[in-house]
Amino acid sequence: MADTKVQILPKDTLHFPDADRGFLEPHLPEKGRKVGKSKFPFTTLTFATSLDSQLALSPGAPTALSGPQSKAMTHYLRSRHDSILIGVGTAVADDPSLNCRLEGVGGYGGKGTDGQPRPIIVDPNARWDFTEHSKLLKLCRDGKGKAPYIITGLLEPPADKKAILDKYGGKFITLAIHKSDIGEHRLDWGEVLQTLVKEDLASVMIEGGGAVINSLLHPKYSSMIDSVIVTIAPAWLGQGGVVVSPQRRLSDEGKPIAAARLDSVKWHPFGDDVVLCGKVKL
Amino acid sequence: MADTKVQILPKDTLHFPDADRGFLEPHLPEKGRKVGKSKFPFTTLTFATSLDSQLALSPGAPTALSGPQSKAMTHYLRSRHDSILIGVGTAVADDPSLNCRLEGVGGYGGKGTDGQPRPIIVDPNARWDFTEHSKLLKLCRDGKGKAPYIITGLLEPPADKKAILDKYGGKFITLAIHKSDIGEHRLDWGEVLQTLVKEDLASVMIEGGGAVINSLLHPKYSSMIDSVIVTIAPAWLGQGGVVVSPQRRLSDEGKPIAAARLDSVKWHPFGDDVVLCGKVKL
Q1: B269:A267 CB<8 A
Q2: Do A170 and A139 contact (CB within 8 A), yes or no?
Q3: Residues of A237-252 as b/e, b for ≥16 C-beta within 10 angstroms?
Q4: B39 close to B194: Cβ distance less than 8 angstroms
Q5: Which of B244, B276, B278 sits opposite A52 (nearest CB)?
Q6: How far apart are CA B89 and CA B210, in angstroms?
Q7: Which residues of chain A does B274 touch, with a Cβ-Cβ cutoff of 8 Å?
Q8: Which end of chain B has a smaller Cβ tally under 10 Å, C or N?
Q9: Bridge-based pairing state of the strands B83-87 and B118-122
Q10: Any chain B CB within 8 A of the CB of A219?
């Protein structure tokens, strides 16, 4: 006899057909991966761009770029990672949700917050000015997402923000600030990723924004990336948007060379878009 | 009995398998197309970029971007068009060959210059400083290409250059110079394309460089493009190269919108690269 129990799913629940999952599998952390195998999490860099390598028309601008299939794919990818990481610029500009709306995860047919990734915000100076009205915390209240961990360089993050995070089960995590070669003060990606493992997060999907992606494609960090999944939409946004293009590299002879290349490349046409999967060539 | 005549082909002759030709066919001018059907030629915009939409590390820099299959494809596309057009910037920076090295065309196993496209250089001020040592003219001497037509705004192009072109069967073609909305003096793409038809060239493949491509993707001109074929290589060149990204568009309400979109889109994985075929959405 068929199960007669009818479950009401939220209207914005997404479906990602099994038939589309296969091509992604070799590029994802194995199911049930636990921390302990490596001091780094399985790290996937994933984003969607236009043909002119732009994430958006401007920071925070709603930019209809990739199709509905690609959107559902993003949520499937989220369901396959323990955490999603973004930079503070994106948090400030987008008021992001960072949850997973795939049918079957917690809040969308599943139990509790099962399958919901932990949002991670990299925010060296704790400048993300969130409140309980921020989308991310609203989703926590509704049982549709987990509270964020905010990775900062501040020894004493703002008390009011800390109180909000405490209430929902999130927290600030303080790491050392380093002076880079070019004099910037910033967190070190290696330490950020190792911190996730200490928090029992065995995998992370890094979604943006431009500054985060460009920095991770630098040879100093690209060895920490296990998998790259880029969706490309057949449109040019035009000059002036948020561009993915890492810092130029120089050869030993001082000549410019490609900043980063992928190998083990697979292209998968997907609706009007294409999905590119690969690994950064070291 | 098998034909025992052995033909020696130049060492740099390229082969493009029949099996790879099919997917391109709907995006190409029909074989044997004649002028007369339209006042415009069949116009294909085609180029190869990195993931960060760059044609080259810098103008004229040899940039190993797309794979050998994509190179052979480019020469097949050249064999399917009556002419190849580039801007003067590319002519100056690259000392280009602009011929077709596909097996079977003139100079590569074929008769005379059969199947060789006519090189068209758009050079408003006739600043391309070519000599008989320029690659393009050397190829003419060797029977491996046709002499260029140079489209200029000068009523009296330099006599020494004109003498060289005359000798090889090329020429200058003078068109009117127009003052654009933003005060630049330039040729009009509509007039350039119509001139090709007057020269009995029923199709043109526009290959670059960045300024030419960005200008043709502007809505003012994109209706003149019949087909767009872009090869994308899985590498980021890094900030500072020659970028394809057209001018930003604004909506009727003054908000930025995508500069250009393609429809009738096909993505074709091709070696490590992908080939995108489509039409500009009007």
Answers
A1: yes
A2: no
A3: bbeebbbbbbbbbeee
A4: yes
A5: B244
A6: 9
A7: 267, 274, 276
A8: N
A9: parallel
A10: no
Model confidence at A4, pLDDT cuts 50, 70, 90, reads low
Residue B182 confidence (pLDDT): 66
Residue B265 has phi, psi (to 5 degrees) of -80, 135
Candidates A40, A11, A29, A34; CA nearest to A78 is A29
Query: H-helix or E-strand containing B74?
Result: helix B68-79
Q: What's the burial of B123, exposed, middle or buried (CB within 10 Å: 0-12/13-18/19+)?
A: buried
- The token pair at B86 is 């580039």
Do the chains contact at B276 and A217, CB–CB below 8 Å?
A: no
Cβ neighbours of residue B167 under 8 Å, at least 6 residues apart? none
A150 SS3 class = strand
Contact B41, B197 (CB under 8 A): yes
Percent of residues, chain A, with pLDDT higher than 70: 97
Those residues whose C-beta lies under 8 Å from the C-beta of residue A181, and which sit 6 or more positions away, are: none
CB contact under 8 A, A272 and B258: no
Q: Pick from A199, A194, A196, A175: which is nearest to A186 by CA?
A: A175
| Cα separation, A25 vs A19, whole angstroms | 11
Q: Which residue does chain A place closest to B278, by CA atoms?
A: A234
The alpha carbon dihedral of B250, B251, B256, B260 has a sign of negative
- Helical ranges in B122-200 per DSSP H: 135-141, 159-168, 189-198
In this complex, the residue of B58, B230, B235 whose CB is nearest that of residue A262 is B235
* Token couple for B250: 């604004």
Tell me if A192 sits within 8 A of A224, measured CB to CB: no
Res. A28: pLDDT tops 90: yes
Q: Torsion-angle region of residue A22: left (phi > 0), alpha (psi -120 to 50) or beta?
A: alpha
Partner B contacted by A276 (CB < 8 A): yes
pLDDT tens digits for range A91-150: 999 999 999 999 999 999 999 999 999 999 999 999 999 999 999 999 999 999 999 999
How high is the mean pLDDT of chain B? 94
H helical segments located in chain A = 68-79, 88-94, 135-141, 159-168, 189-198, 210-216, 219-222
B72 band by pLDDT with thresholds 50, 70 and 90:
very high
Q: What is each CA distance from A190 to A163, A194, B180, B197, B276, in whole angstroms?
A: 28, 6, 52, 60, 36
Q: Evaluate if residue A183 carries a pLDDT over 80.
A: no
Q: What is the pLDDT of residues B237-277, one digit of tens each?
A: 999 999 999 999 999 999 989 999 999 999 999 999 999 99
Q: Which tens digit of pLDDT belongs to each residue from B92-150? A: 999 999 999 999 999 999 999 999 999 999 999 999 999 999 999 999 999 999 999 99
Task: Establish if B217 touches chain A: CB-CB under 8 angstroms.
Answer: yes
What is the per-residue pLDDT for B26? 97
Measured between alpha carbons, how far is B78 from B88 in angstroms, rounded to an integer? Answer: 19
Beta bridge pairs of residue A49: A232
